[in-house]
UniProtKB/TrEMBL annotation:
Gene3D superfamilies: HAD superfamily/HAD-like (3.40.50.1000), Putative phosphatase, domain 2 (1.10.150.240). PANTHER family: FRUCTOSE-1-PHOSPHATE PHOSPHATASE, GLYCEROL-1-PHOSPHATE PHOSPHOHYDROLASE 1-RELATED. InterPro entries: HAD-like_sf (IPR036412), HAD-like_SPP (IPR051806), HAD-SF_hydro_IA (IPR006439), HAD_sf (IPR023214), PGP-like_dom2 (IPR023198). One of its GO terms (molecular function) is sugar-phosphatase activity. This is Haloacid dehalogenase superfamily, subfamily IA, variant 3 with third motif having DD or ED. The lineage of its organism: Bacteria, Pseudomonadati, Bacteroidota, Bacteroidia, Bacteroidales.
Length: 255
């Protein structure tokens, strides 16, 4: 076990060193954690993928369930346009986008059981115990989002420090959502962590210059998340919670 701990610490140290070199930073001074929502805070991506695939099939759009793990994080309109371009080589009309997104949302609400992601509460607790702000940066456009988060994770999030589909012009993989998250937290890129499970979300966070921790809670190969630039990768939120102290200790040691 001591040997294993040494390997883990070395892996974290190397990831931090590589991040600092790439982003021309001297230190990481964590003050905030920016959490994606679906697949990170909630075990909900399986229901999103099911709902998207069923509606796409109904509208004769070419797709597989795994496509929606790749598309995750971008706006609904972007996903629908991607499917229309693939199938019909054109963008969807406004009417088509509204119809499909309404049907998808209805199915998702029918299937979704609202279960939190195992280990997410532990990560949140450790982040807040470490004195870090906790924010949500999501491509979701649910109006009831804050009530849902307050019920599952009481006292962890406020509307003033959330970024949703209603706040941004460009969704992930554009860096705007995470740049806005930094702005709302009042921190610089080297003063935050991002926790993401989606390739497009990781791409957005990396483009924003933030140290990005991937949790592979879906069916995609680890390589897909690492290829988008994730600095660290864990198989689930519980593993990240178990390693949180190591990450914080090594960041402190780089000061």
């Amino acid at each position: 076990m001591p040997h294993c701990k040494h390997i883990i610490k070395k892996m974290i140290q190397e990831a931090i060193t590589q991040y600092l070199q790439k982003n021309k930073q001297e230190v990481i001074l964590p003050k905030a954690v920016l959490f994606d929502m679906d697949g990170v805070l909630y075990d909900s991506m399986r229901f999103h993928a099911r709902a998207w695939h069923e509606v796409a099939t109904k509208h004769h759009l070419l797709s597989s369930p795994d496509d929606f793990y790749m598309f995750e994080g971008q706006t609904g309109n972007s996903t629908i346009n991607a499917l229309y371009q693939r199938t019909f080589q054109r963008d969807a009309t406004e009417e088509e986008k509204q119809t499909i997104y309404r049907q998808k949302s209805s199915l998702f609400n029918k299937y979704n059981d609202g279960e939190p992601m195992p280990g997410a509460a532990d990560v949140l607790k450790q982040a807040r115990t470490s004195g870090l702000q906790t924010l949500v940066v999501t491509g979701s456009g649910q109006h009831s989002l804050l009530n849902k988060l307050n019920h599952t994770y009481p006292g962890c999030f406020t509307r003033e420090k959330m970024v949703t589909a209603f706040d941004v012009k460009y969704g992930k993989p554009h860096p705007e959502p995470y740049l806005m998250g930094l702005q709302k937290a009042g921190v610089k890129a080297n003063e935050a962590f991002v926790i993401e499970n989606a390739p497009m979300g990781i791409k957005a966070a990396v483009a924003a210059g933030i140290f990005t921790i991937a949790v592979n809670t879906g069916p995609l190969p680890d390589s897909v998340l690492l290829d988008e630039g994730a600095n660290l990768l864990y198989p689930d939120m519980k593993s990240l919670a178990d390693d949180w102290k190591n990450i914080m200790d090594i960041c402190s040691a780089t000061k």
